[in-house]
Amino acid sequence: MAWSFQELADWAAFPERLACFEADLLAVAACPWPETGDGLRRCAEAVAGAGADGVQAQLWSAALASRLLHPERAPAWATDWLTASFSPGDVGLPFSWAELFRWSWSAAPFVVGAEGRGRLIHALAGRGDGDERPLLPYWAADKLGPSSIRGVEEAARAARRQPGHADRRFFFWPQVRFSRRRQSCDGGSLGLAAYLGFIGEPGDARVVATGVVGGGETVGGVERLRRKYRAVPSGHAFLYSPAVGAALPDCDGAGARAYAVGTLREARFISRFHGAGCDDQLHRLYRARGNATAVAQLLDEVPGEALALIERNEGLVAESFSAGFSEMGLKVLIDIVMRGVLDYANHADMLHVVMDGLTREVVAGTAALGGLPPAQLCELKARWFSMRGDAAKSDRWSRLSADYAAHLSARDRRQWLLIRLHGGLVNRHHNRYDFTPEVPEDFLGELEKLENVCSLYERTYGHGSPDMEELAALYGTLAQHFAFCGPEYFGQVERCAGLCRRCFKGADLLPADRSRSYLLFAALDAGEDAAARQALVEYLGGESLDAVAQDDPQRVFKLFAAVRYAVDSGRGFPGVLDFARAASASEPEGFFAGYPWNLILCGLARLIRGEDRERAGVLLDRAWEISLAGEATVQAMALVPLSWRLELGMKDDALQGMTATTLDRLRGLDELCLDHFRPVLEAPDWQRALAEVVARRSRLFPFTYR
After folding, report:
1. Which of 32, 373, 466, 693 reaches 20 to 30 Å from 581, CA-CA?
2. How confident is the model at residue 179, as a pLDDT?
3. What mean pLDDT, rounded, does the chain reach?
């Protein structure tokens, strides 16, 4: 429980009662450092004066453990007080002060079930390098039974089998009452907690483990699970072996979430990701590993950020995809990916994980099931790389898609073609900076067929055709295409966006929503303020600009629209301006990454340039860095923040170097239509090159590219 040094000093006035406080000192995470060292010194003196040697050692132990476990919480004077007050040996530790502070320490709490009830015991597990040393404190033989000591030894051996730990030294430090003469625990069930602490999982005390660690990967079962479970605080995870107590999660307890773990890998997984906000889903995802279909069905349930973190650490999705899909699993996966591609802003993390897992080998494995899926997956991969601005990889996957499609039936081939058409214009033209207005014949032919089918269906049955959504998507793609081609095509953008929305008869579906954003950016390019204003209102769904900026920066494309309108219209929007100020006051590299953040930061810099020119320059520099870190299409956008730097009078040696770097990079992007940038690339010097960008910015970077 929580305690304070002042409380401890007050209790020291009653030596006969002071031992009652000793148990509270075992909760090292609750150690509340006083504001000054004098408060701690007075407390220590009061305890020493009471003649309670066990409590004094307990105080030292608690303060040291808190400093090791949470150094960021300890005041600056804490280390000096500790080293001046006692030595590590006074609390049973075989370390010098320098070694203690050099090692890494993790919480490793465990529970014991003796004396008719469960009891939580806090512990620290250390890992470091250096000479061989004891694995446990000097007093271990008095406080721990032989089987507990063996359990810690087995945990250390298991930890050394983990990659990167073979030569590490380990130390396990339970927080026990020094005044007690009897053993604090006996039994090997502390082994799992020690193992997790040795390898650095978890980093805090919210995961309590009980289980026997042996020579393999299996976690051995333990006794008295129910009473142990009841000792675990609410909000914690309780990891236990499923060998006994299968109904444990239904126990009446303090609200801890129990997880049956059968292997050390499963225990590592749960302890590492506990607290991600979706613990049950993550555990189901782990249990589904190796089953591509089961994993695909869970992709929508796990938040994208948590999924990305898991994949970086575990490779679980890629491992499962490699095992192969069933027909149902493929259908589920394609449906999820299709929805993710259509609503990229809300599914970016999930798509990254899935697309990385869909290797050529995985796709080739699906070909054995026959039909459309391999071609679909390749086309979705092509569109994915196109969305990221990597035209070269998009081309490769598009060609592979065509190879698979060559063997399709006429019906399947038509369905494949519809998927291909949506991404074709973007990848073959827009992402390469080829903004010619001509529309490919195959696109127009398919559009005409769908128009005739939908018209006939509606005349015959009196309601919309099942193909209406496909028709709307083609209209939306066409609106996007004409928007890239310049202000003179604004009428075409209006017509196609209107046809897209009409397909849904006012329903608020994603293709219709995107068409409103296309109309907004095209209207801004064309100087059509009234049309832009109306499109913005519809796109934001009635929300004010201020609300979008203040609500959730993750709604990045709506924020992009709000910032772009605020800048281009020249109107003042307090919420957007406040967001710009907040962004400029932050460290940009810590918060913003990827397209369209590079362009959002350009807009924010323009909004604050009058009141904080220096911070505006910082935002533009970060926009430049984001651009160069992207794929080819986004790399070319690095010219946009540089051109604003020049226009805002931020001309210096740094700008010269940044421009030279950008032009060199651009010259090497052969997958782009470099003729589009010829006036810039042929300029006699860097200043003239940027001047060309300033003069031609709306043509070089039309629509959503600036």
Report:
1. 693
2. 60
3. 84
